[in-house]
Design brief:
5 helices; mainly alpha; about 110 residues; single chain
C-alpha cells in the first residue's frame, strides 16, 4: 500500500475484503464497484464505479487520483474505518448486521 497512489478493488463478489480496511487505514483512495453491500459498508469513503462499465471505471480512477491530495478526506476515511470496523470479531458482527439488513430489503 505504501507505494500505491490508490487502490482498485474490481470484484463484484467480495464480502468486506481486508483490502477495504487496509486501503483506508493506509490513507489511499479506494475504488470499488457500486453494489449495495460496498455502499453500505464504505459510505462516502470509497469511489464507486458501475461493474462492467470501463468508461465509468476510468472516470472513477480520475476521481480517485484527485483524492490522493485531499488529506482531510483520507484522514476522515481512516477514522471512519477505525471507529466502525475495529477488530475482526467486531467487524464480523457488523458484516452480519449489514447482510441481514440487505436481505430484508430483498424480501
Amino acid at each position: 500500500y505504501k507505494n500505491s497512489d490508490l487502490i482498485l478493488m474490481p470484484s463484484n463478489l467480495e464480502i468486506f475484503s481486508n483490502v477495504f480496511t487496509e486501503a483506508l487505514i493506509s490513507k489511499k483512495p479506494l475504488i470499488v464497484c457500486d453494489n449495495e453491500y460496498n455502499i453500505e459498508i464504505l459510505d462516502k469513503y470509497a469511489i464507486y464505479f458501475k461493474y462492467g462499465n470501463l468508461h465509468n471505471l476510468y472516470n472513477s480512477i480520475i476521481q480517485a487520483t484527485k483524492k490522493t491530495e485531499d488529506n482531510n478526506y483520507l484522514e476522515n476515511a481512516k477514522n471512519f474505518i477505525y471507529s466502525n470496523y475495529k477488530h475482526y470479531d467486531y467487524r464480523y458482527d457488523q458484516i452480519i448486521k449489514i447482510i441481514y439488513k440487505l436481505c430484508k430489503k430483498q424480501i
